[in-house]
């Protein structure tokens, strides 16, 4: 990736404008070298680390726990429905297999009867 492509990617990215300005200044004032790329990576990583280092409040934990519980309940319901659907499908397949076996027996009997008729005639 060349310098202009990197500038375009930074411009359309969703990173904070303050960080974007730092990176663009760095690019405008320097050639795109390995060291500059590493500085940009470090700036972005520091920004990510800063965002994730903000502690949650007790209210945040309550919301997270509520959402987790709701999601768990929904997953349990989905798993139960899936289990019922799978049981239904298995029963239908067993019925279909039984029908196929009956048809095959009838076909075999028809062939036997046809061969007997040919032999007897």
Description:
- The chain is about 85% helix and about 0% strand.
- With about 120 residues, it is mostly helical.
- The protein has one domain.
- Helix 1 packs antiparallel against helix 2 and helix 2 runs antiparallel to helix 3.
- It is elongated, with a radius of gyration of 35 Å.
- The N and C termini lie far apart (about 85 Å).
- The mean pLDDT is about 90.
Distinctive features:
121 residues; 0% strand; elongated
Percent of residues in beta strands: under 5%
Question: Mean pLDDT, rounded to whole units?
Answer: 90
Total separate domains:
1
Radius of gyration: 35 Å
Give a short account of the largest sheet: none
The helix tally amounts to: 4
Form type = elongated
One letter per element, helices H and strands E, the order comes to: HHHH
Termini gap = 87 Å
Would you count the extended β strands for me?
A: 0
Helix content: over 70%
Q: Briefly, what is this?
A:
The protein has 121 residues and is mainly α. Helix content is 87%, strand content 0%.
List the helices and strands and how they pair.
Blueprint: H1 3-12, H2 17-29, H3 34-52, H4 58-120
Helix pairs in contact: 1-2, 2-3
């Amino acid at each position: 990736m060349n310098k202009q492509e990197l500038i375009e990617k930074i411009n359309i990215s969703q990173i904070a404008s303050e960080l974007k300005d730092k990176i663009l200044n760095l690019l405008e004032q320097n050639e795109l070298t390995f060291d500059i790329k590493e500085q940009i990576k470090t700036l972005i990583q520091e920004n990510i680390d800063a965002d994730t280092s903000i502690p949650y409040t007790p209210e945040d934990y309550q919301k997270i726990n509520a959402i987790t519980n709701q999601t768990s309940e929904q997953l349990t319901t989905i798993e139960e429905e899936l289990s019922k659907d799978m049981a239904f499908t298995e029963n239908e397949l067993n019925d279909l297999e039984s029908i196929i076996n009956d048809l095959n027996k009838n076909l075999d009997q028809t062939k036997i009867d046809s061969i007997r008729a040919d032999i007897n005639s």
